[in-house]
Amino acid sequence: MDIEELAKAFQIDLLLEGRLVIERKSTERDSALYPRQLLTYLRLMGLQLGLLMDFGQETFKQGIQRVVNNHNPL
Fold it and tell me: How many CB atoms lie within 10 A of CB 44?
């Protein structure tokens, strides 16, 4: 795998104001893979916050998950 192929393998869906990554999905079942994928993007980009939005869930509220990289509670 060359560098160009590797770069294509990691493509975020949306980046808001250079600080918030939004990963969109449309699946009928939850998967533990999707939050880990988003966390990988956050780590590679050096960002702290991302939202996983799964439009395939029963309600919109069920489809949103907050993912935090290097969370340091006060």
Answer: 11
Whether residue 73 is contained in a domain is answered as no
**Per-residue pLDDT tens over the stretch 36-59:** 999 999 998 999 999 999 999 889
List Cβ neighbours of 4 (8 Å cut-off, separation of 6 or more). Answer: none
Torsion of CA 74, 61, 68, 6, to 10 degrees: -170
Please state whether 36 falls in left (phi above 0), alpha (psi between -120 and 50) or beta: alpha
pTM of the model: 0.79
**Count of domains observed in the chain:** 1
CA 67, CA 56: separation in Å to the nearest integer? 18
The answer on pLDDT for 23 being more than 90 is yes
